[in-house]
Amino acid sequence: PGYITGPLSSVWRDWVHWSVEFGIDANNIWAVPYDWRLPGSVLEERDLYFHRLKLTFETALKLRRGPALVFAHSMGNNVFRYFLEWLKLEIAPKLYQQWIDDHIYAYISVGSPFLGAAEALKATLSGITFGLPILEGTSRLMCNTFGSSLWMLPFSSNCHAIGKGWRKLVTGLKDGVAVCCDETEYSSKFSGWPVDLAKVDIPKGSENAGASFLGVSDDTKDTGECSIPVQRSFSARQIADGTLFQEIGDLDTDSKRVLYQLHKFYLNNPLFNALTPWDRPPIKNIFCVYGVNLRTEVGYHFAPSGKPYPNNWIIMDIIYETEGGNLQSRSGASVDGNPSTTSGDSTIPYHSLSWCKTWLGPRVNVTRAPQNAHDGSDVEEVLEMEHQYKIDIVPNLTRNSHVKYVTYYEDGISNHGRTAVWEFDKVNHRNMVRSPVLMREILLEIVHSTHPNATGKFVSKAIRHPIRDDDCYWDYAKARCAIPEHCEYRYIFGDVHLGQSCRLRDSASSMLQKIFDL
What we know:
The protein is α+β, with helices and mostly antiparallel strands.
């Protein structure tokens, strides 16, 4: 493993290595892997996964005499959400909050697809190879056998699950799907996303294949131009509720299977509908972390290829969000839409990643600082910014185009414990969990929260010393290692350039303590 799949099969290796390097006992790191091919209900049915996960938390509490820090990446956040919902039925309601307080100290969400990802739709209709030496059609065949593929479908932030007590009062529900959308869903475009997730060319004569299900009227008259297909647009809501797959049913033999899995594992799941927005979980400390300012796919134009399944769709165009929130087609042309303030992490759009900003309190402190070691001269902050639910926080901060920053959004006032959202410039989805800067910030927060002399809710961002040998480099202008108070020249056999021989004077754990003491 790793020789062919490369970084796809070694996501946590660097994280574990750095944890030990920074002074964390390896015996305190507990892995809880899951079969990522399976939807949540099957994970429990086949593997008793959530029973075993609950037992893991309880065992860790007894052995380590303290609550755990949950570190979840990408789809792992969906699994953790499912666990919290499952736990509500496993534990008496009066004991639920106490169990969480006793067993979970902090939840660190890394690159979470809170509102899904456009690429999940691409995988379902066209296939994604992830750089592996396989055909897209083969990839589609493989992905569509996984019940978990639909777990990442994009959905609207304006549609919410209806509580069991209200279901009898709601009429017109299809197949028992208990979801209600607010007025914003119908008065605004694109279900809150930058663009419609899918545009599909449907040949004349097939455009009303799903009319009985959708209530679509035949407003398209045959003008004799039989070669011109009808183009339909589908929002995130229409993808999550199955409208898209219903309408292309006559063109795609796999649509029935997709609809079956969508209803069985998600829309009609008796536990909860996972394709609805996630409210802030009742955990004392939450850190939501993701990369930004990378080109990310947000929409597609599909057309029938004329070939049999699984190669029956081709992608005519892809819509990307780019740095600054601009929308572009595959050719580079500008696209009209509802752009975000910036772009996502190359896999998940910013609109989905940043949903956790809605978890912040009514007053938010915003700080922007360089990712690398710095003396504080390029740090800016805006205190007590007003925050309204579902309205993005856009601070007026300057930016050096040559510097990669971290933008910290942290509760000034909150009724839910501590909540922080950290945005890392130019760190892609798969590398976010490997970021030594993220590890530095998390460890500083751990030290801060347990230090008897700590002041403030969060660690100050005023200064950051180098904490790893890789943070030291050679200053050619001064012919010495840069940051000489913390880095020194120390050659080790195998170094091939001067920068490699620049190393920390002290251990990584000592440097972390020095940062905190400041």
